[in-house]
Predict the structure of Cytochrome c oxidase assembly homolog 15 (yeast).
Amino acid sequence: MLLSSIRTTVFCRCRSASKGFQHSTRSPQLRQWLVKRSQSTITAEVEASSAQTAAAVPNASTNRIVGRWLLGCSGLVVGAVVLGGVTRLTESGLSMVDWHLVREMKPPQSQAEWEAEFSKYQQFPEFKIMNHDMTLPEFKFIFYMEWGHRMWGRLVGLAYILPTMYFWKKGYFTRSMKGKVLGLCGFVFFQGLLGWYMVKSGLEEKPESHDIPRVSQYRLSAHLGSALLLYCASLWTGLTLLFPAHKLAETRHLTHLRRFAKGTGGLVFLTALSGAFVAGLDAGLVYNSFPKMGDRWIPDDLLAFSPTFKNIFENPTTVQFDHRILAISSLTAITGLYLFSRRVALPRRAKVAISLLAAMAYGQVALGISTLLLYVPTPLAATHQSGSVALLSLAIWVLAELRKMPK
């Protein structure tokens, strides 16, 4: 429509210019030169207007750029989750007792600065109860672990905010996409504040408690859960921009498969979140046997706390038991999803995604059992935590492949 109107305008202006010049007393050469100049000027104006209009309207090319950017951001979030897990496993998370957005970006440089930082750490429960014989070189190790995690978090924030400003100015976002990216950027800020709120829980003096100092398992699970939500939202949005929805025949089996996939994805997310309670309470060190817990299928101290509901979140035995049940349920659901998908006519890419999800589920369960039986070695435990993110990623991919065509 736009192109046809432009062509009509150009044609009419050229004809009117020619007619006006035919009645002129000027020379034919001059008339020809003026007509050509008028035509070239109009063409240049039309091309500039078309280019400006195309740049202001999101298209397939800009969607690919935004999609790749969001996938890159989701990869950085994965790095933050993995690094945070290693920080927790090495018990480094309470080494930095202050929080400053800019000032703490530079670690201590001189010997005096390191001793001052170490002196501040010595005023808090973790040093007094657990690490009272820690040396300065040992403190430097845990400090750099936490510092690296915080700096990675700042990198994630910049990776979301700066491109958002650039793409917004270039007109790459639709109205709905503007709301999504604003939500993602706001979630990054919330995630940083939640991280410091979590650390504060491990720095507080608790005279009534005889347990080792650690962050609240509730705040730890909230911190991990918000990171996973940020990751899932970024990954989903990026995949939907890069991969158009398949034109699938809407059958009853396909509808059931979509519902099955959504439920399975939710179960995988819940299983990963329950791992935060296992890490927060060191519940992986309670019963290091499988499939039984000790010599029983259901341990005696499963409901040792009162009131009963506190066992779900505060009893290490119950937390490990719940994580086992959720992991086995996820494996069963993914296996059922794979078998049911064989009955539905799906594109090749969707079949590959479901197959990889099933393979990863069995690998993740094997990693979890190995981590448990070997008394939670740090490298294996970190691999198991990374595996949970990989499993969740594949579940998101499956959902993206099975989504409906937009109306």
Observations:
- Residues 6-11, 16-26, 48-56 have pLDDT under 50 and may be disordered.
- The longest helix spans residues 136-170.
- The radius of gyration is 30 Å.
